[in-house]
């Protein structure tokens, strides 16, 4: 039982927050980092048609950041302490998942929501 509790704790976003950029104009600059199996942002809110410039900083291990539904919305898998910036346009409204594509990481809780408002 203790082991199961630890697994839940490892995958839970201990320092999670929401970033709402729906009231800003121009390119939306987003910095996201990770620690363990969690991103520091669990929800990002933007408007359809926004251009996003996302800088992902890896706080440890081997991780990436990606959103499958938008072209260019994926970093490479990065080693600890490395960062990469990607830029893309969110051209449709809806709720999309960003996640780490390293096997097992998404299932361990390394994901969040990108909410694109009409």
From TrEMBL:
InterPro entries: BlueCu_1, Cu-binding_ET, Cu_oxidase_CS, Cupredoxin. The keyword Metal-binding applies. One of its GO terms (molecular function) is electron transfer activity. Residues 30-117 form the Blue (type 1) copper domain. SUPFAM superfamilies: Cupredoxins. Pfam families: Copper-bind (PF00127). Keywords: Copper, Metal-binding. It comes from the Bacteria. This is Blue (type 1) copper domain-containing protein.
